[in-house]
């Protein structure tokens, strides 16, 4: 079972999300939070697999809550937003969120996204991912602290995988592109995240964009 904590301040929206998630046989709603502080507290108490986190909440915003949840290794975070490319989304990804969804996402897509994040794969819709990453990397006000030297620890294959992540490719897509088993791709992703000190493949994708790393 995938245990999910739903953090959303609007009770009607939260109830709808819970209803959708409970319709999936492999998903359990472990708890509900109405603000960011409660989300962090419940994540510490319940240790869910995934936190479905609204970015705009009282007491503690979703970005700050995401940063705490990820920093403490409590769960993977899937952020919810009304707008597909706003500063809240960028802030949440910088904080280590595994991906994001729009609040008007179809029920089946929400369930699929939760399953994907629970598997450690982050955002998987290539078109959305590429657009998000491109917008993120192009933000003129964003001061890049990326140092090309961080790539020195990566093997040639890991650099190729990193480049593919920068294009928004899923593990299956990377496997096909680089002619390797999907399980091997997962291993490379895990290793490169560890070497680069990153929390999610989305952060890796942004780094690839910033440093111009290309997939094969």
TrEMBL record:
Coiled coil: none annotated. Keywords: DNA-binding, Phosphoprotein, Transcription, Transcription regulation. It comes from the Bacteria. The modification 4-aspartylphosphate is found at residue 54. SMART domains: HTH_LUXR (SM00421), REC (SM00448). Residues 147-212 form the HTH luxR-type domain. The keyword DNA-binding applies. Residues 3-118 form the Response regulatory domain. It holds the Pfam family Response_reg. InterPro entries: CheY-like_superfamily, NreC/VraR/RcsB-like_REC, Sig_transdc_resp-reg_C-effctor, Sig_transdc_resp-reg_receiver, Tscrpt_reg_LuxR_C, WalR-like. Gene3D superfamilies: 3.40.50.2300. This is Response regulator transcription factor. The lineage of its organism: Bacteria, Bacillati, Actinomycetota, Actinomycetes, Kitasatosporales.
């Amino acid at each position: 079972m995938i245990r999910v904590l739903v953090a959303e301040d609007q009770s009607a929206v939260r109830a709808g999300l819970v209803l959708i998630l409970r319709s999936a046989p492999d998903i359990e709603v472990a708890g509900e939070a109405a603000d960011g502080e409660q989300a962090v507290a419940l994540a510490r108490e319940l240790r869910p697999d995934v936190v479905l986190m609204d970015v705009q909440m009282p007491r503690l915003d979703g970005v700050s809550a995401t940063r705490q949840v990820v920093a403490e290794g409590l769960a993977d975070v899937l952020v919810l937003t009304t707008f597909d490319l706003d500063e809240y989304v960028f802030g949440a990804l910088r904080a280590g969120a595994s991906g994001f969804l729009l609040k008007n996402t179809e029920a089946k897509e929400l369930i699929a996204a939760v399953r994907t994040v629970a598997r450690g794969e982050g955002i998987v819709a290539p078109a959305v991912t590429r657009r998000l990453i491109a917008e993120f990397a192009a933000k003129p006000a964003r001061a890049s602290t990326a140092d090309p030297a961080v790539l020195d620890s990566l093997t040639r294959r890991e650099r190729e995988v990193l480049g593919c992540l920068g294009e928004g490719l899923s593990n299956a897509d990377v496997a096909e592109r680089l002619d390797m088993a999907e399980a091997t791709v997962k291993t490379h992703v895990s290793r490169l995240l560890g070497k680069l000190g990153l929390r999610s493949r989305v952060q890796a994708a942004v780094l690839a964009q910033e440093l111009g790393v290309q997939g094969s």
